[in-house]
Amino acid sequence: MKTVKELNNIKEKVLERIELRKREQKDISLDSRNMQEGMTHVLVYGGTGCHSSNSHKIIELLEEKVKENGLDEHIKISLTGCFGLCAAGPNIVIYPEGIFYSHVKLEDVDEIVEEHFKNGRIVERLLYEEAKAEDCIKPVNEVNFYKKQTRIALKNCGVINPEDIDEYIACDGYQALAKVITEMTQQEVIDVMKDSNLRGRGGAGFPTGRKWETAFKYDADKKYVICNADEGDPGAFMDRSILEGDPHSVLEGMAICGYAIGADQGYIYVRAEYPIAVQRLQIAINQAKEKGLLGKNILGTDFSFDIELRLGAGAFVCGEGTALMESIEGRRGMPRPKIERTAHKGLWGKPTIINNVETFANVGQIILKGADWFKSIGTEDSPGTKVFALGGKVNHTGLVEVPMGATLRDIVFDIGGGIPNGRKYKAVQTGGPSGGCIPAEYLDTPVDFASLAKIGSIMGSGGIIVLDETDCMVDIARFYLDFTVAESCGKCVPCREGTKRMLEILERITNGEGTPEDLDRLESLAETITSASLCGLGQTAANPVISTLKYFREEYEAHVYEKRCPAGACQALLQYFITDKCIGCTKCARNCPVSAISGKVKERHVIDTETCIKCGACMEACPVGAIIKK
Amino acid sequence: MANVTVTIDSRKVTVPSGTFVIEAAKKVGIEIPALCYDPNLEVVGACRLCLVEIEGSRKLQTACSTKVWDGMVVYTQSERVINARKEILQLLLDNHPNDCLTCQKAGECLLQKYAYEYDVKFREHNGARRPALMDTSSPYILKDDSKCILCGKCVRTCAQVADRQVLTFANRGFDTRIVADSNFTLEESSCVSCNRCVTVCPVGALVDKRLLGKGRVWEYEIKETKCKVCDYGCNFEILSKDGKNVAVRAKAPSNGRPLCLKGRLTTEFIYLDEPYTPYKKENGKFKETTWKEALGIEDIIEKLLDKEEISTGVEYNG
Ligand SMILES: Cc1cc2nc3c(=O)[nH]c(=O)nc-3n(C[C@H](O)[C@H](O)[C@H](O)COP(=O)(O)O)c2cc1C
Ligand code: SF4
Ligand code: SF4
Ligand code: SF4
Ligand code: FES
């Protein structure tokens, strides 16, 4: 296509087709179960979470059955990206009503077709739990998990088919690019971006507009735009979901950046472990090229921009900007010393802008709706929204997008539904291996760049792991250090040698072999690794240790001085104990292989913890559950 | 390029802008410890030993990879700097064999030098150590991984000659190693025994095997000579002990000089009182060979045999 008019034509035509997904959804009363007349769209979520649980087979079967029953005239089945509630997958939403089925299995397809499609009756058994209210059925948008979210980066995820560029265009896709290249100067684009104060979503939160300006103002014969899609934090899948659910939003953001700084080539560095994302990105790039929205002379202007994929081999450190560039250049992915800024000398020594997936996904809408709109969301320090991957000990794990400044309480309790099994909330870990643990007393801390930094954690790329009273903080620190040690590139001494020593100490402590000197050594190591490491990986590697030492020092001390794990998580430190529930049946004593249990018949028995080898035989033998570990 | 003036440990120095702090410091006689920096190699900032404090910057900065700016104020000996260096050296020693007594590199080893200067000592611990992998396959180079501090100089210098690029990093994190051609022995690999890597290795991880047991560096009289084989004129050192030339070793190459085995052997042949057996690599195997074959040029040998004549052309700067 050569003109904006053609783009608008597609938009209008396709909008008609998908409009019913965007209608206002109302509660559906239980007694009038009849569905609305007319077209029905069935959206089957096909993000990695749902995908790995068979969503593609469900689509095939649904299509087959709908056709068999002659319903394919008015029932359209579509694939869409992740909608967030991964733990409940595979998920299906039926529009226009917004009926939300979860945990759908292949065997359920028949019933859906028969009951829902033919008889117009909702299959209550499959409804997402929270959708079942007392006297009505809540549509998907009214479910707490979604209602409390504000979706910018994820706005199309779960709404459009990511493999169909027309649906993206129908939802204002490529309008921002069209506007930029036909109506705005490079400086104007940069001014909007600067004014919006969009901060990088990849972790460090650097202002995007300022970075772009640096590259724009640096003269060079060639410049590059890189999208960092190497997402490697354990537990993070924000970027993957955007790539899988709305790949064009990233391409569009990159092209806008290319225009702003004067680059004609972009690369998306995506990990090979994200096969669906890779595939959908490739489809998206091909479609955009076919439509003339990427490639030479976009929309008939002088602006040309091409995007290629580069696959990463899954090293966490390759997400670090300069290591990523080394990797694209075909070298071992090791960070470079920061002699020059990458906005001046980056990929192949040329000015390069590298931004995160989510950062790019925000760009189009900022251009279309303006910086003021963007700043009206979130906080002054951190405008806009942030996508988080909520995991750990929380009822609804999944992907959530909330305005910056939402409190941890909003995220963990309102959206996440609180802690399962009636356990006590203890802390959240944010920012993955570069972040820290935030104790319960900071539950009302707003989540934005500055506030998290102030209490010793970081926003990071957006992982939030909820911890409850059964999580040992020393063990959590050990877990993250274990990750860092495995992922350190090995280039610089403090990180390569220091993190390993730190991990050894944490292992000693969780094994009950820690000494008081170990605590001092942890602190001095943390200081050295933080201040002397070459790249962000090392500079932040000690954060999990520093923050847990700061807020949970007594837990470390219990391990070291009393050889006790207060959370009862460190296996090596557990002690078996007989409570007063004991009826004196002697079974435990008879089953103990090392005769560590003594006691008279019908009297409470006692375990000699010195002799006990922690095999657990007594616990299994006790008929009244009187033996506990603590 | 414009000049800038910086203050390093209260000494003022004027240097061209774009100069690295470590070089500026050198100009006023301040030596900043550095294990991975080499002015002839790409700057990598790996060892972190050259950390210095720069006024206005919260974090410590590496002197090898930070460019000076006008009015910059640098402290190379502040308490913070010293502590960081001590910790880094300790981390290195904690993962280094304690055998300086018999190490060929003793007296020249940079790790030894800095450990001494910063008073950092070996200590007992139960933690992990680098595996004691030793590559003895080459008659020219001994590669002892347990001593490697992963400064990467060998990799960089080897890669400077287009058709070499033998050495690379392998594995990650604590398990990182230097390997020849994705993990072959030096013998099986495409290594041409030029010994560039040996000349830059700051520790005893890569040593010239022909020097083993011949003497200590402080016992030698060292004379420098230029190679006669080709126009590059690489530099070699003739080591003599008790008035006898006992070994020849390559000097670190600069200005695009490649170094090569033939040059070194030729120099050995010319200067050593008793040249050692030459070896030649054929199909990934080292074989004993004759001097004629090793040096390759029979008619030149005839000339070389007349040692008197040649040695007058040698420059001594020992
Ligand atoms: C060890 C390490 C891993 C990183 N991994 C990622 C990543 O997976 N994705 C990402 O966008 N940024 C990652 N970053 C941050 C990038 O270096 C860089 O700051 C970011 O891509 C810039 O984009 P932004 O300004 O849009 O956030 C990582 C940084 C470090 C130090
Ligand atoms: S801090 Fe760690 S990951 Fe970064 S360069 Fe140093 S060794 Fe590599
Ligand atoms: S001897 Fe030469 S070719 Fe062989 S590894 Fe060393 S530098 Fe490379
Ligand atoms: S072998 Fe020597 S030069 Fe090579 S990385 Fe190890 S210490 Fe450095
Ligand atoms: S000399 Fe500067 S980091 Fe090694």
What are the key terms here?
heterodimer, A: 630 residues, alpha/beta, Glutaredoxin, Rossmann fold, Ubiquitin-like (UB roll), 5-stranded mixed beta sheet, 25 helices, 19 strands, B: alpha+beta, 3-stranded antiparallel beta sheet, 15 strands, globular, disordered C terminus, binds flavin mononucleotide, binds iron/sulfur cluster, binds FE2/S2 (inorganic) cluster
Gist of the model:
The complex is a heterodimer of chains A (630) and B (318). By secondary structure, chain A is an alpha/beta fold.
Total of helices of chain A: 25
CATH H-level superfamily title of the largest domain in chain A: NADH-ubiquinone oxidoreductase 51kDa subunit
**End-to-end separation of chain B:** 36 Å
CATH fold title of the largest domain in chain A: Rossmann fold
Number of helices of chain B: 9
Identify every distinct bound molecule in the structure, by name, code or SMILES. flavin mononucleotide, iron/sulfur cluster, FE2/S2 (inorganic) cluster
Return residue spans of chain B where pLDDT drops below 50 for at least 5 consecutive residues.
308-318
- Write the CATH architecture name of the domain at 3-77 in chain B: Roll
Largest interchain contact: A-B, 32 and 35 residues
Biggest sheet features of chain A: 5 strands, mixed
| Residue runs with pLDDT of under 50 for 5 or more positions of chain A | none
Radius of gyration of chain B: 21 Å
What would the principal axes of the Cα set say about the shape of chain B? globular
What is the third-level CATH name, the topology of the domain at 3-77 in chain B? Ubiquitin-like (UB roll)
DSSP strand count of chain A: 19
Strand order of the largest sheet of chain B: 2-1-5-3-4
- Structural class, from helix and strand content of chain A? alpha/beta
Q: Main sheet of chain A: which strands, in order across?
A: 12-11-15-13-14
Give the helix proportion of chain B (percent range).
Answer: 10-25%
